[in-house]
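Example with several molecule types.
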Amino acid sequence: MTNFRKSLQAVSLAAAAALLLAPFAAAQNSSNNERWLHVRVVSSDNKGETVRVNIPLELAEKVLPAINKDRLHNGKVTINHSEMDGVDCRALLAALKDTKDGEFVTVQAHDADVQVAKQNGYMLVHVIEKRWDEDKDSKNAKTGKSVEKSKVEVKVPMKVVEALFSAGKDELDVLAALKALSAHGDTELVSVKDEDNTVRVWLDSKNVSD
Amino acid sequence: MILAKLALGAVGTLAVATVYTFREGTIRVDVDEHRPGGSHVHFWLPAAAVPAAMHFVPDDRLQEAADQAREALPIAQIVATELEKLPDTEFVSVDGDNEHVKVSVRRGKVYVDVQDHDDDVHVAVPVSTIRDIMDDIASRQHAQ
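Resulting structure tokens for the full complex:
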């Protein structure tokens, strides 16, 4: 009888412990195939703020279709042609798909240099914004020396770009782009460096920023 | 002997009730205002008490809340459901000179920690409680 009572006590304790610990055990059971989108902004002003954001792509994929506000509906964004400055993105993409690797668009303007290229299945966009130091003698900015004000580097897998433009004529399919992105390996997506901030957006399978 | 059995029954019931209560986790709120006369609020309550307490909220109040949150409710429900599947993670962190903000999930709880030179705020809520509350509000919305 004493043995039975001891066994009963042990079983009761084990059951109570299992009940208590069940939520924690469940929380630890996560898949390792999760893809994470990371954003890091480091500000170089006197406050010196650093912002880190880590979002699982799967969560974004599930949340996005639930947001129906303004131009975003069912994971698609409606684009306004008047905002595109007459640029036919779809035709541009079609041309881009058939182009060989290498630089294919370079725009050198007074304020910025823009380079768009396709390389190893990625679309690369580099923008260097310039600031002109005034010529000390003539006080003329145009005759002064240009200084790099900010540098933006965007690297997007072509499959993601294609998925983005896979919806209707006036829509961007953000959800399809996210799905294409989640099927992709670790990659650096955006890097911005200017006088005040450094921004980095990347994708990997870790749930923490480096 | 009868007294002993009664005591054993009472202790057993208490133990089961405690296990059930703490299985759902606890909600913890700590607020400290670091200024003269600033308030200091520290409390915790069993998360299991919240869904039970929701039943005592008048229907019209809850439906009003549901109406106001009509757009955000499905999103919050999805987020709450998905959060339960995730490993321990820091979703957002802001580190400044005198300011630290952190939103994270650890061991099935959502933590919001805010520290600046004036205030310290720490809130911890089990994800399952958030989901239960969202589901409850959503069900009241459907009942309209």
